[in-house]
Every structure is written in structure tokens, then in C-alpha cells.
Amino acid sequence: MIEVMRHGAFSVNGVGVECRPFPLSFSLREVEGVWKVAAGAAQACEVADLLVAVANDAVAVVSLESNSYLDEEWRTQQPSLIVAELGVPCRVHPLGSWASGTYGLGEELVLMDRDQLPRLLDDTLSPYELTLIDLPSDATPEQLDELALVLGTTGIDEPLLNRLEGSEVWFSGHDDCYVLLETRDPALPAAVLARLLALLAGSALGELTKAPTSRVPEPGSWLAERLIATAPHWIGVLGGVSEELVTIELAALPEPWRLSVPFPKRADLTATLDVRQGTWRIAPAD
To answer: What residues contact residue 234 under an 8 Å CB cut-off, 6+ apart?
Structure first.
């Protein structure tokens, strides 16, 4: 069971000027033994435990932008100041001014024990940009400089993790909504897809009941694995919603979903949560 906040990613994001309900999206590809995921909608705090489960001993905050912590010039404070204000134990590795003009990098890396990540991503911090990567806790300053160099010079379509030793997962979250992910763990993509289904169902129940949070069971791994085996790219929207059943209509796409792509005229499959029984089932769409 997970707790889905009423103001989670699916609830606060909309599509277009009409703010139509934001769909579930999931895209997966494998490149040289690394799994690359593009997905939505999820806030970093909504998937933090999944990252912790596969990460190395330590996690580095590579970049962090948030409107929750601003300096006197209305700019996001340095990540180390934010982490310190939240009382999360960490160490700081300065990179210097060379990194400040590099996309996705700041002037420092903030390192913490992986178990501190959920504490960082609590309700106090709402990052609209966040990049994380795991690494061994005994990484040397030279290794951290090398890490930053790789992060700053890897192309968007290149597998980042194949240029690094000792890192298992890279996460980049944008606008409290979009997720980009690389992992060596073949089970993590299915776990992310299952989490998205639970988050979408939970957001629907939250809207229905007006409760601050909704406790929702996640689908078993078999459901997400079946979807991934059927097609690499999916979009999902809410179907029927009641206090007993929540139905999500799912359609396979020929390529990753984009904001301009409407839901197909017909769903391929439906995933249904039985709220009372706490079970999920999947079936061909009617």
C-alpha cells in the first residue's frame, strides 16, 4: 500500500490551456544494457523509495531548483543550504564556476546516505527541477570531479551509466511531473509503471473523497511486466471512478507520448483497481 497525496503529480498538472487531466505516460528502451525510462506524472517524493531500493550507499544531488527556498534575489538557494535547513546530514563537494554554465549541473554536489533521500523529499521541499545519481559512499574527490565531468558531457540520447562505474540509477525530475530515469536494474522500470498506475488511481480517489491522502495498493509486478512485454510505449487515462472501482484505460503508442498527442480513440487494455478488495486486474478494452 502507498499513500497518494491529494495534491500529487496527477492532481496538480494539466494539459494545455484547458488544463485537461494529465495522462499516465510510460516509455522504455534498452541501450547497451541500461534501461532508459521517460514517464509521467510523478513527483520526486512519489518515487523516492523505488530509487532508494536499487541505489548504492550514497546519493548525490546534482541539481536542485525549488520555489520553496529562495534567496534575497528570489533565486533558488544553493542545494547545500536547503539540505542543511532541512536538517539532512550531508557533505558537500564544490565543483566551481566551470560547472555553473553546464546544463543539469550546479556549482556543487551534495552527498547523503541513500536512506536520507525520503527525508529530503518531504512535504517541505517541492523541487521543480531535481537530478540525482547514486554512488559508493567512499567516492573520492577525484571520482566526484570525474562524475561531474561525465554528467556535463553526456548527450541526451547516450546511456549515462555506461560511462560511470559504481552507479546504478540516475533520476531527473521536472516540473513536479516528468520523470527521466536510467538504471541497470531490469526490475525498476516495471516498479515505476506500477507506481504510476497506483498514483493515478489514488489521485482519482482523492478527488472523489476529498481526503488529504488515499491509501492505494500497487499492482503486482506481473501487471506492469505484461504491459512492458506487450509494448514499450503507453498512455493511460481514467475511465470509470467510484469508491468501489477505479478503471484506467491504456493504449499502446508507436513512439513515446508527447503533450500534443491526444489519447487514441480506442483503448487497448483496461487496468482496474477493486478498492474494497485491494486487488488489480487487467483485461482487453471493450
So the answer is: 24, 25, 26, 27, 193, 227, 250, 251, 252, 253, 257
DSSP string spanning 116-163?
GHHHHTSTT--EEEEEEEEE-TT--HHHHHHHHHHHHH--TTS-GGGG
Give per-residue pLDDT as tens, 194-233.
999 999 999 999 998 888 888 999 999 999 999 999 999 9
Cα–Cα distance, 134 to 164 (Å, whole number):
11
- Cα-flanking dihedrals φ and ψ of residue 202, to 5°? -65, -35
| pTM (two decimals) | 0.94
Q: Which residue has the cell 482519482?
A: 204
User: What type of residue sits at position 9?
Assistant: A
- With beta carbons less than 8 A apart as the criterion, state whether 86 and 159 touch: no
